[in-house]
Amino acid sequence: MTASTRTVSREWRREGAVSQADLDAIRDGVITHGRQQTQGSDARDIAVALYEGDALIAGGFGRTEFQRLYVSYLWVDADHRGQGLGGDCLRQLEALALQRGCVDALIETLLDEVAELYEHLGYACISHVHDFVPGFTRHTLLKVWQARD
């Protein structure tokens, strides 16, 4: 049998049989393919973190791309919530994004009260999916600093 006629077996792997490296490769493949469909991708990670001594008490990260801030995660330690640190953290990310030339910002949450906080900070709800997961609505919010062409 020659190399051109040899059959390679295929096998579906499920759940725990798919390695973390393969999950990362799938994610990276989707992102790479999507970016190949566009022109001018300038994706860069963006992050801020607040420490009290050596302890991390708040932070957020995401990316900037195509003049937009995409906030992936915004977190405040449970013992420090209710002090405005989440809003401070978001404003820090926004300031960095503005320095990079972003014209708007996109953020999502499953919590109604957090969506209201984002609206208070100048974001507008552009979509919501009720019962995205049982008992929770997925809110997508956008803050525009400068209109796009």
Automatic annotation (TrEMBL):
It comes from the Bacteria. Gene3D superfamilies: 3.40.630.30. It holds the Pfam family Acetyltransf_1. GO terms for molecular function: acyltransferase activity, transferring groups other than amino-acyl groups. Residues 1-147 form the N-acetyltransferase domain. Transmembrane segments: none annotated. InterPro entries: Acyl_CoA_acyltransferase (IPR016181), GNAT_dom (IPR000182). Keywords: Transferase. This is GNAT family N-acetyltransferase. It comes from Roseateles chitinivorans.
